[in-house]
Amino acid sequence: MSQEPGRLQSLALLFLKLGLTGFGGPAAHIAMMEDEVVGRRQWLTRERFLDLVGATNLIPGPNSTEMAMHVGYARAGGRGLAVAGLCFILPAVMITGLLAWFYARFGELPQVAPLLQGIGPVVVALIAGALCRLGRAGIKDWRLLLVAAGVASVAFEQGREVLALLGGGLLGMVWKRLKNPGPALGISLLGWVQAALAAGVSGAGPFPLWKLGLFFLKIGAVLYGSGYVLFAFLEGGLVQEYQVLTQKQLLDAIAVGQFTPGPVLSTATFVGYLVAGPAGAAVATAGIFLPSFVFVALSNPLVPRLRESAWMAAFLDAVNASSLGLMAAVAIKLGMAVLIGPLAWALGGGALLASLWWKGSGAYLILAGALIGYVAGL
Predict the structure, then answer these.
(1) 228-to-5, 178, 248, 301 alpha-carbon distances in Å
(2) Residue 82 is inside which H or E element, if any?
(3) Residue 305 needs a FRET pair 20 to 30 A away by CA distance; which of 86, 158, 271, 314 works?
(4) pLDDT tens for residues 8-22?
(5) Considering the entire predicted model, what is its pTM?
(6) For 139, what's the count of Cα atoms within 13 Å in the CB-facing half-sphere?
(7) Which sequence spans correspond to the domains of the chain?
């Protein structure tokens, strides 16, 4: 263990750098990590690195953040996990918190409003583009397509995103493992889930700090798939059910998540600040990232066994499809709110085409939308 201090320092410096420069989303982050820890530093073999990438898909949470934790664990054990994870998260959280403070003070000023409104159609386009790309990999057969459609219907009509996600995962797992299942069975099962969730919908109420922390802790514990799935939980919970966030604020929070480097889930810091000030930002950030530290520490030795389970593989396929359903529901809701008028549709359509065919960061598209919106005086 005599080498541990030096290893911890090198982990801290590397992941602080990646946290400050990691624009472009999880895929770009993981590519940057591969270049650093496999190519430049040779801390891991490429085969070991790929095994860790696969491990991040087996557990809930943000893939690139958990990848940083896996690398830290492989390099310096439990302390390395904590150092790598915290150093990767910290720059995005600090930048996002500062932007949240600025937004809370100046976001409603008339001279800023056109710029923020021009961002909305681009944000919807980015979610739709991510949905198209992920759908090619996540929707592997007609059963998963029906699971995604059923979850999207539940989330659009009733919210209850966490239960819809888990319900879709469990039902899809059973449905995939049955021999010769028919579509009628899957449709019936999804109908039963929808009816059960409708009976349990609760109205808006007070939102104390502990409830905010529990809300984000719950999301961090079940969030499979892209970081964009977070926005479905926020829209269904904080906008629709608890009504402590407006759709405009959600769109602006999504834009901030795209503008800043590091994990997209730092959006939780921004949202927490808007809901409950600095304490809310701290609680929301801790809540959404804490499960990842636990899951990485627990799952690292178990990954080979989980990959061999046909039932677990079916569950993960169904959960990923359900995540896409949640993304579709939030894209439709946000689109209905912001795609008003020819210019908004032109911005959204252009951004969607660019997101599908251009490999650059979504931050540039958001910046372009903001400038166009400001000049046009939307």
Answers:
(1) 36, 31, 17, 28
(2) helix 63-106
(3) 86
(4) 999 999 999 989 877
(5) 0.70
(6) 16
(7) 4-89, 90-376
